[in-house]
Amino acid sequence: MTEARNVLGGTLETCCTSPMTGYYRDGKCNTGGGDFGAHVVCAQMTEEFLAFTKDQGNDLSTPVPAFEFPGLQPGDRWCLCASRWKEALDAGMAPPVVLAATHASALEYASLSELKQHASDR
Predict the structure, then answer these.
(1) Does residue 98 contact residue 42 with C-beta atoms inside 8 Å?
(2) Distance (Å, rounded) from C-alpha 98 to C-alpha 82?
(3) Which of 67, 70, 95, 114 is in Cβ range 3.0-4.6 Å of 110 for a Cys bridge?
(4) What 8-state DSSP symbol labels residue 8?
(5) Average pLDDT for residues 55-60, to the nearest whole number?
(6) What's the helix, strand, coil split of the chain in %, to 5?
(7) CA 109-117-52 angle, 5° bins
(8) How far apart (Å, rounded) are the C-alpha atoms in residues 122 and 119?
(9) With contact defined as beta carbons under 8 Å apart, do 30 and 12 qualify?
């Protein structure tokens, strides 16, 4: 298996382990055949984004103990669905992105320029 790459062409770095994120709950925004949501954008949550995504029907701030989901707070990092991040971008609500921890496949949804404009790790 080849090593996952980030949008900058380097090795995919860890997004967050507290709370544990990623489609595979390994702390990285890895993806694979079963990840139909493409959870590949490492984003730092903001109050505005959490309110936006809740209004869109995806509440990331409320804990769901049955799925061991603690609920996210502003400042937390999380592997977002690339299409949700792009939707937030188009609405002017995109949260900051950690480029080194964002999977290269995010470039299928947003340009590197768009991601860089919202980079938290410039």
Answers:
(1) yes
(2) 13
(3) 114
(4) T
(5) 94
(6) 30, 15, 55
(7) 65
(8) 6
(9) yes
Q: What three-state secondary structure class fits 116?
A: helix
Band (122; pLDDT cuts 50, 70, 90): low
Span 27-33, mean pLDDT? 94
Q: Do the beta carbons of residue 78 and residue 45 sit within 8 Å?
A: yes
pLDDT of residue 1: 52
**What is the DSSP code (8-state) at residue 45?**
-
- The candidate with the shortest Cα–Cα distance to 40, out of 88, 90, 121, 104, is 104
Over the chain, what is the mean pLDDT?
Answer: 94
Which residues lie across from 69 on neighbouring strands?
A: 64
* Residue 13 near residue 6, CB atoms below 8 Å: yes
Q: What is the dihedral of CA 104, 59, 45, 79, to 10 degrees?
A: -20
Nearest C-alpha neighbor of 15 from the set 98, 84, 86, 96: 98
